Amino acid sequence: MAPSDLTMSQVSSFVSTFLRASIIFKVLLQIVLRYFVSTWRVISQLQEQISHRTFQHLKMAVAVEDVMDLKANHSAPVLNDPTPVNKPRLGIHDSLGLRTHFSQTPFLTIAWKKPGGVLDDVRSTNWLDAMKSSSPRNVTKYYGTDFSSNDADMAYRDWMLKYHSALTSFEQIANNARGKRIALFLDYDGTLSPIVDNPDHAFMSNAMRAAVRNIAKYIPTAIISGRSREKVRKFVGLKELYYAGSHGMDIMGPVRPPTDHNNTTATNDEVKEGKLYQPASEFLPMINEVFVRLVELTKNIQGAKVENNKFCVSVHYRNVDEKSWTTVAQYVHDTLKQYSRLRLTHGRMVLEIRPVLKWDKGKAVEFLLESLGLSNCDDVFPIYVGDDRTDEDAFKFLREGGRGYGILVSPAPKESNAYYSLRDPSEVMEFINSLVMYKKSVP
Predict the structure, then answer these.
(1) What is the DSSP string of 111-124?
(2) Are 403 and 182 within 8 A, CB to CB?
(3) Which of 276, 314, 361, 367 would bridge 394 by S-S if both were Cys, CB 3.0 to 4.6 A apart?
(4) In 3-state terms, what secondary structure has residue 45?
(5) Which of 107-121, 127-141, 252-266, 302-316 is predicted least confidently?
(6) Burial class of residue 260 (count of CB atoms within 10 Å of its CB; 0-12, 13-18, 19+)
(7) Backbone angles phi, psi at 223, to 5 degrees
(8) Could you write out the DSSP letters of every residue in 261-302?
(9) Where are the transmembrane segments (predicted)?
């Protein structure tokens, strides 16, 4: 048909059809565009969440650095020519075939130079991030992201693929320990006792005390705590244990009554009362000064508690309103500026001021193994059970030494130098009772 033959009705019909097709195409195009935009938004949100969680992991790793830069433009002096340490006997059970003297080792009094740096205000550092990350109040927010209970359980199960339960893996642990001499090291708070709001009320149960008493009949057992030695010994109430307070800076052997059939009769009162090793004794006046000052500074902060643990000062902020955490941290920071030989470490909702001394729970384990005559033996199997960041030094010592196992007590996933895990003190007690049954079954 020639163009001249087109009627007006046909032209109108053609235009109408074209317009309808254009509208349909536009609608389809909008649908496609909306689909791609929606998909892009979902992908962007997922990427943002993944990036945020990764950032939280990194931030948390940085936030809990063990030593903070505290001295502005000034490095702490190295303690040159330290006084030789006289390491007395700690009262070792003769029936266990253990040595009762110490060799002079170089690591005992090596000072640690505190890293220099500028710290004008706690807000310019990661103090507050570290304080928040140490809070065990809500384990579903451990990584800075809200999880549902199902997500938290799934995350914990995934985590346990790396840190197997020491209960379900007990047979494997026992097989590896067979024919070897086991030594057991235990943290106190969060391990033998639950974490509580008031640190003065962190009592262990009678059942836990019985379990620890029973295992101490078979193997050397030590409590290594950040608390003062006297305080943790009073909490535990067992004379047959080794106690290392102030993160291992105050060590004492068992008090052995003359009627104890496992021991030789003590010949003097000094042996009866146990022996002390205190590598940080020269810091006592300094620690006491800091304690008095921080008590005065924090007296008007509701919920703040300053604890004198003899060779370290602990500032608890568990019961402090989070809005006041900055004030607590600032008081600690301002105090530490006056003491170049003291440093800060973070515990579970506690700021701890300790001597600048290369000594930690790992060194305490090393010292105790040496005092037991087990430091250079292939048939030694140390086990360390703890829940806190300060226990990581002991886990690391065992891992790097390639002997024994560290067992982390935690209800939430976190990276550790431990090999195995337990969820809470009730599982710790079950593990100790399993050790007792194992020792009863082997010659």
Answers:
(1) B-PPPPB--S-GGG
(2) no
(3) 361
(4) helix
(5) 107-121
(6) middle
(7) -105, 120
(8) TTSPPP-SHHHHT--EE-TTGGGHHHHHHHHHHHHHHHTTST
(9) none
Q: β-pairing, 313-316 with 350-355?
A: antiparallel
Task: Tell me the per-residue pLDDT of 28-40, one tens digit each, with 9 for 90 and over.
Answer: 777 777 777 666 6
Give whichever of 102-106, 332-336, 373-377 has the largest mean pLDDT.
332-336
Catalytic residues, by residue number, are 187
| Helix (H/G/I), strand (E/B), else coil: 307 | strand
Residue 315 contacts residue 306 (beta carbons within 8 Å): yes
Instruction: Please return the burial class of 12, using the count of CB atoms within 10 Å of its CB with bins 0-12, 13-18 and 19+.
Output: exposed
Mean pLDDT score across all residues of the chain: 77
Q: Quick check: 321 and 303 in contact, CB under 8 A?
A: yes
> Is 192 in contact with 227 (CB distance < 8 Å)?
no
CB distance 185 to 368 below 8 Å: yes
- What values do phi and psi take at 400, rounded to 5? -70, -30
How many C-alpha atoms does 341 have within 13 Å on its Cβ side? 14
Q: What is the pLDDT of residues 103-132, one digit of tens each?
A: 333 333 334 444 444 344 665 556 666 776
- Tokens representing 199? 């640190």
Give the confidence band of 87 by pLDDT, cuts at 50, 70, 90: very low
| CB distance 221 to 212 below 8 Å | yes
Q: In 3D, which of 214, 376, 357 has the Cα closest to residue 281?
A: 357
- Token digits of residue 79: 């303690």
Q: Distance (Å, rounded) from C-alpha 320 to C-alpha 306?
A: 12
Q: Which two tokens stand for residue 289?
A: 């000064």
pLDDT of 22 > 80? The answer is no
pTM: 0.67
From edge to edge, which strands make up the β-sheet containing 305-308? 305-308, 313-316, 350-355, 342-347
